[in-house]
Amino acid sequence: MMQAPFQNTIAHLAHVSGRGYWSGKSVSLTFLPAEPDTGIVFRRVDVAGKPMIPALASHRTDAQLRTKLVCGGASVEMVEHVLAALYGMGIDNCIVECDGAEMPGMDGSAYAMALAIHQAGRITCDQPARYRRIEQTIRIGDEQAYVEANRAQVPGLTLVYHLDYGPSSPIPSTSSSCLLNPEEFLTSIAPARTFLTESDAAKLQQSGLAQHVTHRDLVIFGKSGPIDNQLRFPDECSRHKLLDLIGDLALCGQRLDGMVFACRSGHNLNGRMAERIQSSSDPSNDSLLKAA
Ligand SMILES: [Zn+2]
Predict the structure, then answer these.
(1) Is residue 81 annotated as part of the catalytic site, yes or no?
(2) Ligand 1 mean position to 253 CA, how many Å?
(3) What is the pLDDT of residues 243-260, one digit of tens each?
(4) Which residues, including other chains, have CB under 8 Å from residue 199's CB and lie 6 or more apart?
(5) How many other C-beta atoms are found inside a 10 Å radius of the C-beta of residue 12?
(6) N or C: which end of the chain has fewer CB within 10 A?
(7) Å from CA of 278 to ligand 1 middle
(8) Beta-bridge mates of residue 62
């Protein structure tokens, strides 16, 4: 189902709170309705002056295994699931107040946030939504890992993710796809959880990170599958990678009309694709993309 071609915000406040995966710190988020053309903006209410950090690729900075935004002296990180929840639920304008730098990890998925946004309701204003139609192929990465954006075969944003860590990985190779819309996002993409191998999880904890995180706070793969846990979907890992891709593409700052295929990509490649799309939206740059 196509979304209405007008901008949406949430009808009521929504709250979510939890602990950051990396820092272990408690953090509360409040999603606030916002005026047309606000976009998605984070506001650090725990920092003097309550600085605003627009969720745009031009504020993205490289960080290990997560997406981080920096604007002025303020930053927010692990924003990808929050952004996926808003973008996936069709929200164009929202202020996300947070009282810490790291977004809550929840159960490793975006479900709690997407559900809170769904329950807050969506209202449409009379300003046309900002769309970017992908007209020519954009490819970022190499033969091993890449993201490629192409002209849409069907109206809307179609996403495909191919996950393959090789035959020796305990994480099975799977592919997932979706035509992005709020109903499918809420039921089929938002619940897909973050995952790690047992050895990567041990390395993180040895380095002093994620001390409070247990086998139930995300999916940890041992040699014979998820440890002390069950998958929510047979392709949960590639669905989670779709979720991350949606959150990173939200940094384009507008809705997309196109087909994005990602193979083994992570936040860095996804974010660079969002940067390319955002920067090519500037009419002074070479016009890979034209306004729909
Ligand atoms: Zn993720």
Answers:
(1) no
(2) 19
(3) 999 999 999 999 999 999
(4) none
(5) 11
(6) N
(7) 22
(8) 67
